[in-house]
Design a protein that fits this description.
The protein is of the alpha/beta class and 279 residues long. Helices cover 37% and strands 15% of the residues. Strands 1, 2, 3, 4, 5, 6, 7 and 8 form an eight-stranded mixed β-sheet that branches. Helix 2 packs across helix 3. It is globular and about 45 Å long.
Length: 279
């Protein structure tokens, strides 16, 4: 993490981090009950709560799914993880989940937001056997992103990789061709690699989600809530792992998860899929 610490120190001298306006990653942190947020984020988050009262439930479901998917992938023998759009650190982070099962796992976190990278020191160092790195890159430039990941020396793209795109593609509008972006990312991956993805949907509460999308848009943040069919297209030519594409809290729930909440309160599709042959 030494190189990343230098980046963090450099970023902390930058007065243009946008701490005077609401930020989606800090709002997400607030929904999770975190402390890495400001009053402007809390105010914006509470505004969205009035439009979709279960938005914090959706955030927690997304995080819980990430933990379950990470454990599943580690148990499949995956040793390399690339997590794009990491948000604010919140224990347990992905590397803590997978390295608890596979101590020599390597995890590369990727984000394009300097605010998120400022907090990257809180990720810690991981296990002595494994490695974690942070990379500044933009998913809208997928080839450049994975080239930056490769330069860390932690990921061998000739071996299977687990690629995580959690609550990320929601912020990529159609005109930027998100399905093509995912296809380009997958083109770097070896056979038997995996894609883990979550995406918000308006399928269950269309009026509420139109209002949420509009509220984000008024703050200059484009959000696209996609249908199940639109989300399924991200897994084109991949083999979906059972139970396939489903609402996040229904993907392999843990015994301690407790009673199921209604799907409309989670409003988030999730799936893991395997790349069995090269694209």
């Amino acid at each position: 993490m030494g190189e990343q610490s230098e980046l963090v120190r450099e970023l902390r001298t930058d007065s243009g981090l946008g701490q005077d306006r609401a930020h989606s990653a800090r709002m997400y942190d607030y929904y999770l009950g975190g402390k890495s947020n400001y009053i402007v984020d809390r105010q914006a988050a509470e505004e969205l709560v009035t439009l979709f009262p279960a938005i914090a439930v959706a955030a927690r479901a997304n995080r819980a799914y990430m933990h379950r998917a990470g454990r599943f992938l580690a148990r499949q023998g995956v040793r390399q993880f690339v997590d794009v759009g990491i948000g604010m650190p919140a224990m347990p982070n992905l590397h803590e989940v997978v390295q608890s099962l596979v101590p020599d796992a390597t995890v590369v976190y990727v984000d394009n937001d300097p605010i998120v990278l400022v907090y990257a020191d809180e990720l810690g160092n991981g296990t002595p056997e494994g490695a974690i790195r942070c990379v500044e890159a933009d998913v809208r430039q997928p080839n450049e992103l994975l080239a930056a990941v490769e330069r860390t020396g932690c990921i061998d793209f000739d071996q299977p990789v687990a690629l995580s795109l959690h609550a990320l593609l929601d912020f990529i509008p159609d005109e930027l061709h998100p399905h093509q972006i995912v296809g380009q990312l997958l083109g770097w991956l070896a056979p038997n690699s995996y894609l883990s993805l979550t995406h918000c949907t308006g399928d269950f509460s269309p009026d509420a989600w139109r209002a949420v999308v509009d509220a984000y848009g008024h703050r200059g943040v484009p959000v696209r809530a996609r249908t199940k069919d639109e989300v399924r297209r991200f897994f084109h030519e991949l083999d979906l792992v059972d139970p396939g594409l489903t609402v996040a809290h229904r993907w392999r729930p843990a015994p301690e998860s407790g009673p199921m909440v209604p799907d409309k309160r989670v409003a988030l599709y999730a799936a893991v899929a395997r790349e069995s042959t090269a694209l």
